[in-house]
Amino acid sequence: MSREFTPETERQRLQLLGFLKPELLGGEFTHLEFPRRVQPKELGQRMLYRDQNMTGWAYKKIELEDLRFPLVCGEGKKARVMATIGVTRGLGDHNLKVCSSNLPIKPFLSCFPEVRVYDLTQYEHCPDDVLVLGTDGLWDVTSDCEVAATVDRVLSAYEPNDPSRYTALAQALVLGARGTPRDRGWRLPNNKLGSGDDISVFVIPLGGPGSYS
User: Fold this and answer.
1) Which bin fits 5, alpha (ψ -120 to 50), beta or left (φ > 0)?
2) Mean pLDDT of successive 10-residue stretches along the chain, which has 213 residues
3) Which residues have a Cβ under 8 Å from the Cβ of 191 and sit 6 or more positions away?
4) Which residues 6+ apart lie within 8 Å of 104 measured at CB?
């Protein structure tokens, strides 16, 4: 029902804005993306790059302006806009500036959400059909398939007309994302670190004779 908005997934929108309004980059950033930070010794050499129109990569000759810091940098949770913020949509922070600079970041952040409509009247739902609404603390360490497996496991342990099954499911998802305490911190079953972010989960039953609102 949703997808993440990150500097990576919205790279082309951000790069297009930087291309159309280069004054927003303040001469400190380039709208182009490179596989790694370009070094002065690489001036005149060829390197892979991509711009706002490209999903793949091509080669270009490195020029002086390419030495500027990229508008979008990093991968995964370390991806950043203007080396400062890891989100691309949100409210507030009108005075947020680039670290050690006076450049505003707000022009690159959108306040428009993605809206998807799911018409409940178009489908038949049973008590086990739920919508899981969670924060990054859940989704950063838990895949869709893992959440679905937890849904099946927890709900099958309760009677369909027991409203506490949905609370138990939310608790199981939160505890699963947090992990268990070990010698080297909170760990998941695969021994990776548990979530260090806020973990909030809502389980919303979609319908059926055993569901509760």
Assistant:
1) beta
2) 86 97 96 95 96 96 96 88 90 84 92 88 91 92 93 95 94 95 86 90 81 45
3) none
4) 24, 95, 96, 97, 98
Alpha-carbon separation of residue 205 from 128, 161, 164, 209 (angstroms):
7, 12, 12, 11
Tokens 């998802």 -> residue: 173
Tokens of 43: 């001036």
Q: How far apart are CA 4 and CA 21, in angstroms?
A: 25
Q: Give the number of other Cβ atoms within 10 Å of residue 127's Cβ.
A: 22
Amino acid letter, 62: I
How is residue 194 annotated by DSSP?
P
Contact 72, 105 (CB under 8 A): no
For 131, phi then psi, to 5°, come to -110, 125
User: Sign of the C-alpha dihedral, residues 101, 105, 106, 107?
Assistant: positive
CA 80 – CA 47 distance, rounded (Å):
22
